[in-house]
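Saturday, quiet lab. Running sequence design on the structure tokens for the scaffold JK sent over.
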């Protein structure tokens, strides 16, 4: 499909620079089939049925934004995918000043060597020393806020808490599964009281999620792969809930993409461990997911393509026009939507 079909006019001031406080006070646009209504995140338990399952991503964001020196040149690096215990692929600013074998000093006794490049220009960085890379990043790194936020304000200490979900357990993401940022203990208590179940999986979100689609047609766009895992016990519980009539509602596009990657043609979710580069656009036949809670995405983004595949492009364009007209806040720190196909 033509990428320009997914374009719309988003006023820059609609991109939220800070999250709602409290988190569950954010607004929520309910879209069921072609019908929409304005709610809040706290309304979520009443919008689902007992036996439904909310599926969360328990990845934890690491401080993957680094600033360093290669000789006299300033170099910025955003880690996006782990290669091994000491090596990460990174998108590098000023990459033309970095050659294979060069040493980059990120300060605070954190150094890495450039190993090689991939076909898309990312650089493999090998971190020196014996300390775990996660400890090095805690010393030298910053939280990797999306560029649409970081370009408008500085990254500060509050982002270290604000940009983590309450489910964050397993370190490895360089972007938050932002739909789950809205959840609080009181909201989870109301969900449990309603008889709605919660499950977790892991998808380490990469910085590729921020990259614009540069191709004119979706068939020419290549997604960056991300590592994910669903264990056998979780897969069995999800399949059992669906067999009993419950709906699987992914909390965030990351959970949705991993569920769809793990599902067979018959809709059965299998245990999964490995990389996925699934790219969902209109025409895709969903196998595992019956609904999606997600924030509002940017024009011509792969995530707006995904929600359009779930609900229909015309429906999502109307929903987003409604959100813009009624002052919903967009993107990572913004408001949310609950999308339930007819």
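Result came back. Writing it out in full:
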């Amino acid at each position: 499909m033509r990428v320009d079909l997914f374009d719309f006019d988003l006023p820059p001031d609609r991109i939220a620079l800070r999250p709602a406080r409290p988190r569950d006070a954010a607004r929520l646009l309910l879209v069921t089939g072609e019908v929409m209504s304005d709610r809040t995140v706290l309304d979520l338990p009443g919008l689902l049925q007992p036996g439904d399952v909310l599926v969360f991503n328990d990845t934890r964001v690491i401080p993957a934004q680094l600033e360093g020196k290669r000789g006299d040149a300033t170099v910025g690096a955003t880690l996006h995918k782990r290669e091994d215990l000491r090596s990460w692929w990174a998108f590098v600013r000023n990459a033309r000043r970095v050659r294979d074998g060069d040493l980059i000093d990120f300060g605070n006794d954190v150094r890495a060597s450039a190993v090689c490049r991939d076909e898309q220009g990312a650089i493999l960085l090998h971190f020196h020393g014996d300390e775990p890379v996660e400890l090095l990043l805690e010393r030298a790194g910053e939280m990797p806020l999306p560029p649409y936020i970081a370009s408008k304000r500085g990254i500060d200490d509050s982002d270290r808490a604000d940009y983590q979900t309450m489910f964050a357990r397993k370190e490895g993401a360089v972007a938050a599964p932002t739909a789950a940022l809205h959840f609080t203990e009181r909201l989870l208590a109301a969900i449990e009281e309603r008889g709605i179940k919660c499950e977790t999986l892991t998808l380490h979100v990469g910085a590729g999620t921020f990259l614009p689609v540069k191709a004119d047609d979706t068939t020419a766009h290549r997604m960056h792969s991300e590592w994910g895992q669903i264990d056998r016990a979780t897969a069995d519980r999800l399949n059992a809930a669906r067999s009993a009539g419950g709906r699987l509602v992914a909390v965030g596009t990351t959970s949705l993409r991993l569920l769809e990657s793990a599902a067979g043609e018959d809709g059965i979710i299998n245990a999964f461990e490995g990389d996925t580069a699934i790219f969902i656009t209109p025409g895709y036949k969903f196998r595992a997911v019956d609904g999606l809670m997600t924030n509002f995405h940017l024009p011509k983004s792969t995530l707006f393509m995904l929600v359009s595949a779930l609900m229909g492009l015309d429906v999502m364009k109307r929903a987003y026009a409604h959100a813009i007209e009624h002052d919903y806040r967009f993107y990572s720190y913004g408001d949310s939507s609950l999308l339930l196909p007819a």
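Notes for JK: The chain has two domains: 3-61+162-340, 65-141. The CA atoms of residues 63 and 138 lie 6 Å apart. Ask whether to fix the surface positions before the next round.
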